Amino acid sequence: xxxxxxxxxxxxxxxxxxxxxxxxxxxxxxxxxxxxxxxxxxxxxxxxxxxxxxxxxxxxxxxxxxxxxxxxxxxxxxxxxxxxxxxxxxxxxxxxxxxxxxxxxxxxxxxxxxxxxxxxxxxxxxxxxxxxxxxxxxxxxxxxxxxxxxxxxxxxxxxxxxxxxxxxxxxxxxxxxxxxxxxxxxxxxxxxxxxxxxxxxxxxxxxxxxxxxxxxxxxxxxxxxxxxxxxxxxxxxxxxxxxxxxxxxxxxxxxxxxxxxxxxxxxxxxxxxxxxxxxxxxxxxxxxxxxxxxxxxxxxxx
Length: 302
Hints:
The chain has a seven-stranded mixed beta sheet with strand order 2-5-6-1-7-9-8, with helices on both faces. The chain has a two-stranded antiparallel sheet with strand order 3-4. It has helices at 10-15, 39-49, 114-127, 158-164, 177-187, 209-222, 230-249, 251-266, 274-291, and strands spanning 24-31, 54-59, 73-77, 80-84, 88-93, 101-108, 130-141, 151-154, 192-200. Helices cover 39% and strands 21% of the residues. The protein is of the alpha/beta class. The radius of gyration is 20 Å and the shape is globular.
C-alpha cells in the first residue's frame, strides 16, 4: 500500500530544526507597487482577522514616507475626524498546535530609507526567533480572468528549495520592499521565499477577490493556518461573473480575452509528475471537504 502523501510545508520545514525558544514564521505584505488589486494585503489581512493576534510593534515615522506620494487618509469616528498615517504593523498569531507561530508584517511600502525600515522589522522578528520569511505580492499580467489565477513560489535558499520542491526566481529588474526585506533577512542567515499571484491587467481595480482567494489557498497549503473564506469565495464568484458580463458587452475586450485564453491554453505545460498529481488531488479533496454541503451548487468553480 502506498504511503499517504503529505505536501511539504513551512511548518514541517521548521519542525525538523532544533530550537530552545519557540520559533516564528514571518508573513509579510505591503500596499503599493507589489500589491495589484490590493490582493496580497487583503489576503494577509483576512488571514490575520481569522485568528486571535497580539500587536507587537509599529514601524512608520515621517522619515520613511513622502506623504505626497503615499497620502494619509481621513476617517470619521464618533469622536470626530482622525488621520490615518501610512504605517506598517507587526502582529503575532500563536499557533500552539503547529511547530511555529506566525509573525505578520502588514503595511505600506515606504518611500525612503528601505534598509533602516527593514532593520526595524528584522529586530522585532529576531526577538521572536524567526526561522523563515514568506513575502506575498500580486502583479498585473497578460493573463485571462477566465482561467485559474497563476501563482508561484520561489526561494534562493537551497534548503527551502529542496523541502518545498521549488526553485529560485529568474527575475531581474526593478524590485519592491518584499524582495528587499527577504534579502535583508537572508543576510542574517534566515531563509526567505516569495509568493506571487497574477491579476489580469484589464481588471486591475481593487478589490480583486479572485486573486485574493488564490493567495489564501496557497497560504493555507504552506502555512499551519486556516482562513474564514466562505464570503470571499462568494465574492470571487460574483466578481468573475461580473467581469464575464463586462467582457461580453464589449467586442474588443471579448476578442482580447479570447486571444489571452488561446495563448494560455497553448503554452507549454510542465510535465505532470506523480508528486504534482498527488499534490493537486490532495488540494481538491481538501477544498471539497471544506466547502461541500448537501445543497446544490455548493462546489465552487472559480
